[in-house]
Amino acid sequence: MRSVAAPLALLVLLVAGTATAEDPRVRDLADGRTGKIYFESVTPTSYFQLARRQATQQTVIFGTLRLPKGATGPVPAMVIAHGSAGVSHDREFWWADHLSDIGVAAFVVDSFTPRNIKDTATDQSQLATAANVADALAALRLLATHPRLDRQRIGVIGFSKGGQVALYTALEPYRRAVIEDQTRFAAHVPLYPYCSDWQVSEQITGAPLLILLGGRDDYTPAAPCRDYAQWFKSKGADADVIVYANAYHDFDSLRPAVHAKNVVTGRNCEMKMDLDRFVITVRATGEDITRSAATYGRSCLTRGAMVGGDSEARRRAPEDVKTFLKKVFGL
Fold first, then answer.
1. What structural domains and CATH numbers belong to the chain?
2. pLDDT value at position 22?
3. Are 141 and 104 within 8 A, CB to CB?
4. Which residues sit opposite 109 in a β-bridge?
5. Which residues contact 146 (CB under 8 A, 6 or more apart)?
6. How far apart are CA 148 and CA 165, in angstroms?
7. Sign of the four-CA dihedral 62, 68, 74, 75
8. Residue 73: what pLDDT?
9. What residues contact 182, with CB distance under 8 A and at least 6 apart?
10. Taken in order 139, 144, 149, 151, is the CA torsion positive or negative?
11. DSSP-based three-state secondary structure for 320
12. Which residues on neighbouring strands pair with residue 77, listed in sequence order?
């Protein structure tokens, strides 16, 4: 089952080990290499641990870098963050092909395989989504050293769990936890991300966002994402939302929509995690649940949702993303 969401990552604890890299890790890409690249990241066990810069477990992960054919001079690039089913050719590399069509390089990051994880759709406790966030930022830091990439035009796109990555990397506390200089993503493109719980800060990077949602998504519903986009706008970001009315979660999949009874969803949750004060509240009431967040989380999680592709959304989404990136990257 292709799937996906990362509901309630606050509760996630790390239990997976770290795989040994087949090739030596690299600290920069000054040699202009492409293909499979091993590099170092960290594995935080919670969002607050990452934001506080307390993540110390070093982890070697990898990504696959593809440059567009016939590229001359530095080109823009997108980090691709996978969902809870991991990397696949019919999604992450399918998107890499679409990006190549408009002259954009793609770096498909695999956060699971190096950590001995197959998927997390039915058990998100295997890996905190904060680790995926750290991986994407470490990938950005690395790509900025590549002579054939334009470091000012590197964005991030992600799907469900990876969609959260594409959202949260726009928050300065996370960026600063991984990147010491002013390097930041130039564009953020989350597809059907989990938005019932919000990460907030007074400081965001300010880069534009395009959020693509399924109107019939009962796994990571569209309504909280619309509201979250408004929050980003209130902080000064250009945040656009496109909703494909008849689409379910995982709408860019080739597989038809089915009811996945075992997937974990936090659609009934509504926490707000303040990364400046390290306080957790209930969005609707403002109640401080910092000390009881785990109990709250267990009470709002549930299982079961519709998951699968929609032909119209699968056709439209790449074109909508291309239009957005052409504008942002000046293509």
1. 9-329 (3.40.50.1820)
2. 54
3. no
4. 63, 81
5. 29, 30, 32, 65, 77
6. 25
7. negative
8. 83
9. none
10. positive
11. helix
12. 105, 154
Strands 271-274 and 279-282: antiparallel
Residue 104 near residue 75 (C-beta atoms within 8 A):
yes
Cα(31)–Cα(109) distance, integer angstroms: 19
Structure tokens at 173: 């506390």
Alpha helices in 144-291 (DSSP H): 161-168, 172-178, 222-234
Interatomic CA distance for residues 267 and 8, integer angstroms? 9
Tokens of 87: 């990397």
Rg of the chain over all Cα atoms, to the nearest angstrom: 18
Distance CA 190, CA 130 (A): 16
Query: pLDDT for 241-282, tens place per residue?
Result: 999 999 999 999 999 999 999 999 999 999 999 999 999 999
Residue 260 C-alpha from the chain's centroid: 22
- The terminus-to-terminus CA distance of the chain in angstroms comes to 36
Interval 276-298: pLDDT, tens: 999 999 999 999 999 999 999 98
- How many Å apart are CA 37 and CA 107, to the nearest integer? 9
- In total, the chain counts a number of residues equal to 331
**Residue type (1 letter), 316:** R
Side-chain-side CA neighbours of 243 within 13 Å: the count stands at: 13
Average pLDDT over residues 129-136: 97
Which tokens belong to 71? Answer: 């590229």
- Angle made by CA atoms 115, 308, 266, in degrees to the nearest 5: 65
**What is the H or E stretch that residue 222 is in?**
helix 222-234
Distance of CA 307 to the CA centre of its chain: 18
Residue keyed to tokens 């597989």: 255
